[in-house]
Amino acid sequence: MSKSLKLFGGALGGAVVVLLGAVNFADRFVTEAPAPKPRVVAAQPAPSSPPAPEVAEAAAETAPESGGLLVAAANADEQSAATGKFGIGREALPEEVAAWDVNIMPDGTGLPEGSGSVADGEILFSDNCAACHGEFAEGVGNWPELAGGEGTLADKDPVKTVGSYWPYLSTAWDYVHRSMPFGNAQSLSADETYAIVAYILYSNWIVEDDFVLSKENFLEVEMPNADGFIVDDRAETEYAQWRSEPCMSDCKDAVEITMRATVLDVTPDEGGDEEAAMAEEETTATEAAPTETAAVAEEASAEETTMAALDPELVAAGEKVFRKCSACHKVGEGAKNGAGPQLNGIVGREVGGVDGFKYSSTMADHGGVWDEALLAAFLADPRGSMKGTRMAFAGLKKEADIDAVVAFLKSTESQ
Length: 415
Known about the structure:
- Helix content is 47%, strand content 1%.
- The chain is mainly alpha-helical and 415 residues long.
């Protein structure tokens, strides 16, 4: 008997512990069942006469607040379904619509009054834009370039800038005013925007350094790629031919032989003529070989003499300093014009003499050649030594840096 009591006592104690744990778990982690949703009451027709004040007051006190809101929501849903409008908010005022409508169209529609010069734009660009786009709009890191890119649109990786790609100046003005500077958009005034856009135009050599951009002369600016876009007329010119019935038989044009290859003199009549021509070419090449060898030897000797006259350490130092210029000017094998002309062999070259590069009027009309003295003066103070130049670089301050860059540029004469 005592053994049975012990068994029943243990089982009873275990059951009590399990029940207490279940109640505690349910109290902590199980939410109460949601209350039944109030029933939506359809709107009732208005009474023929208003109720007495005391009746209306009593009804207001007894009517549940949630029920009143649901009745109003039901009425709003019925009204929205009938009118096709949600009935939320209010109609925008004309002043509000005008404030939101900041588009600047290619014909100048939307432009505000104002003006800005290239000189003011250079300062504003340095303060607000140069951290990402560079002092000369050449781009920093992976941030986009805003200048240069001429002749690259057909390349695998074209450089699309204001000077190479954008057909309308309004695109630049609208984007700068609406979305820039990065992180502080729409903080620029109209005058500041005009000035920054003027500096971007100057960086692309579209305007001179004394140019002032305003609403009045905005449309007078000629964008280099204004004619580079066409209206998509495929709907009129191409779609029709693909929607016609396909040809199912006799679709190829008849083949007609109009002339033989021998008549056109594109196929030799006998093999002997071809062999004679090849022999003659070999003889000519053999005779020309000594002359070409002598010319190559003479050129190599001149190159060795030039390099021997230069201090290798000074040339290496100049190459490091030249990195400040490499954003716009290229040197070395395969160098091409960019934002500035390529500088291979500049010492002894005619001022403004690189073919295919659009110089400023000051540089083009200067005359003379780049000797070491003129090049050193220009590197020290570009705008002071050649007033009106488009180059925005302030110049090298250290004479040692100037001498090093001149030596480095002299070393590129043979490339």
